[in-house]
Amino acid sequence: MLKKIVFCAFGIFASLALLSAGQAQAQTKTLASDPQSILQALNNIRSSGCRGSPNTAAAFRLDSRLSSVAARVASGTELAEALQAATYRSQRTTLIALSGYADAQAIAQGAASYSCPMVMDADFKEVGFYAKDKQVWLILAVPFSPPLVADAELIETRVLALINKARRQARLCGKAAMPAAQPLRLNASLRATAAAHAEDMARHSYFSHTGRDGLHVPERANRAGYAWQTVGENIASGQMNADLAVQGWLKSPSHCANLMTPGYTEMGLAFAVAPQSEGGVYWVQVFGQPK
Fold this sequence. Notes:
Blueprint: E1 4-8, E2 14-15, H1 21-33, H2 35-48, E3 61-62, H3 64-74, H4 79-85, E4 90-99, H5 104-120, E5 126-132, E6 135-143, H6 152-167, E7 171-173, E8 176-178, E9 185-186, H7 188-204, H8 217-223, E10 228-237, H9 242-251, H10 253-259, E11 266-273, E12 281-290
Parallel strand pairs: 3-5, 9-11
Antiparallel strand pairs: 1-2, 1-4, 4-6, 5-6, 7-8, 10-12, 11-12
Helix pairs in contact: 1-2, 2-5, 3-4, 6-9, 7-8, 9-10
């Protein structure tokens, strides 16, 4: 008996052989009548491990939106388009297409046999699937998990701590040797400056230091009532937490040099979340030295 599995992540495919029609009918009936069966079978493998990979992941959660994504893919829709149509935002999504397996247990084992790293990846937390004719489509997803607005104050404090830790020691920002710098303190006007730009980028789904009104951070700081000698800005999008945003800035030569600038003494940070926007989460960090 020949079996088939296809797995992809936004267009990357690999495939093997063909299928048995009798097995496909049994497999379709199993999934159509009891959608929890394959979920339980996948979670049993996830808890015990595969190919020597130990269990490091929590159980999958079944999400009806991902099942609708799988149904759209089964009808020929591209994965990215199907995700958008289902209004499901994911940081990372993988499709596994299987054929020729008799029941949920065999399907789960087939997925693990050919794509154990994906099945065991702890970042994948949600799953959906769809059965039709001779195939089953499984969608594994890393769900969109943005920071909470209620935690904005704690997040700003966390970023301040990370930036001040970075500024305590000299470092190379690309080819630029930056000296150690004095710690920064928080400033409410700089926070307001950052918030206004983050919210505008999120609301209108763009990513730029230039606002839609053509203004830049100096003008935005003036508008927020911040009297400055020097002012600067770092922006980022897509990171789900403050640590990732700061790591990205430190890895970027220009952003790193900006946050290491000795003349700055104050900082404000804000983020804005818009699931339907291109970036999803927008971060803005504004530095300043007051007059």
